[in-house]
Amino acid sequence: MTTYKEEDPPGTTKLIIAVDDVQVLTIDREADAANAITRGLAEYLHSLESTVDGTTVRFKQVFSVWATPEDIARFPSAVVLKEGEVTYGDSSFTPQISPTEVEGVARSYIVSPCEIEMVVGVEIWTTDERERARIMAMMEDAIFPVEFMYGFRLELPFYFNARASFEPTGATFEDNPETAKTRERKVTQRFNVKMPVYRLITDIPKAEGRVRLSLTTTTDALEQSS
To answer: What is the pTM assigned to this prediction?
Structure first.
């Protein structure tokens, strides 16, 4: 799904609110790592609801890609976009096979060869300054939901149950005479995002080692010494 309307049921993305929350990897993968990140953030934004100044606030619709001309504008709304280059780093670890086989799939393992890093921007569209202020108040609560880390972490069931870390870097308020005429108040919230990239390996042959020992004796030397 790329469009999440107010009346749609919540997605499966999970906000990690406890530092000791146990992660269990799965073999489910519906997208690549970068698109899984934007989908997860869109689902999280779609789930938000808050009361600000006595008014219930939530997004009318959230997109994980640019809206099409057929999409009817509903405000407030948000679109989650990849910004700039997506990089893959070897980070500080080497690829390691999970010590536990994937449940239900014999001799299958999940490996993480690298980590993905990217910048994600959330364009937020509102109709007036008061509405934007309420939405941004809701966003402030949503992007700093816990005390054990800066930003927040989402678990993505549609990508191996991976966990992506989002670090807010700032917001750009884009006001000008043209948007004032059209009654649009826009702000872009940006995040640095990091997440392990996973890969499923199946039918790994069991390693069979064999040691060959060679022993040579010199009987002549032993006979002379005796």
So the answer is: 0.84
- Name residues whose C-beta falls within 8 Å of residue 156's C-beta, 6 or more positions apart in sequence: 13, 36, 37, 39, 40, 162, 163, 164
CB-based contact 108:27 (threshold 8 Å)? yes
Which pair of structure tokens corresponds to residue 205?
A: 């042959």
Nearest to 62 by CA among 138, 141, 166: 138
| Residue range 45-86, pLDDT digits in tens | 999 999 999 999 999 999 998 777 667 788 999 999 999 999
Domain of 201, CATH number, reads: 3.30.2000.10
CA distance 200 to 113: 11
Tokens 């929350």, residue? 21
Q: Please report, for the chain, how many H helices and E strands are present, in that order.
A: 4, 10
> Which residues make beta-bridge pairs with 124?
78, 187
Domain count within the chain: 1
Counting every residue, how long is the chain? 226
